[in-house]
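Appendix B: complex inputs.
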Amino acid sequence: LAKTTQPISMDSYEGQEVNITCSHNNIATNDYITWYQQFPSQGPRFIIQGYKTKVTNEVASLFIPADRKSSTLSLPRVSLSDTAVYYCLVGDLNTGGFKTIFGAGTRLFVKA
Amino acid sequence: SAVISQKPSRDICQRGTSLTIQCQVDSQVTMMFWYRQQPGQSLTLIATANQGSEATYESGFVIDKFPISRPNLTFSTLTVSNMSPEDSSIYLCSVEIAQGRTEAFFGQGTRLTVV
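Resulting structure:
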């Protein structure tokens, strides 16, 4: 499984756009990129998943450059409730024996 | 999607005793996963539990310490045996479902304190 590197923490203010970048230099051809969000005292929650270019859903956007060695999670107009830990994961979804391995994550603090 | 229920949600246990954590899923799933999350840390995978076979443990985790049962496709238990204060942690159950994307669903966790 490819190793990921993220900033340990980030600060932002309400209403700003937040971009969290994850490095995964050893990503393999069949690997997908997935982001999870975790609030205190809860299990992680799926945010978004992608393979290349750009993916957007109702919560966030995921930007993946052509070389796929990094990815950026973009959270538009964050609110206080977006304060959480965000995990970037990389793995092959086609092996039939996939398992989710978590890195250190990025602690996002949104201030009023 | 999947809804996962874990019991107990929290417990305080004496060292040397054992605690069994239950995980119930509202749909049949092939594989279930158990994680440990120590305060302020990320999640560490303990083992993968397949129905009808022995669990597969990650490096640093052994069956004698963390025996796992998987009697059917909707239920699993994790036992933390012969507990010490170092076992104080949050234990989470998870399943992964492929539905156009592959998404992991987590229980709310069991907060264990060993005194």
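Chain B has a mean pLDDT of 93.
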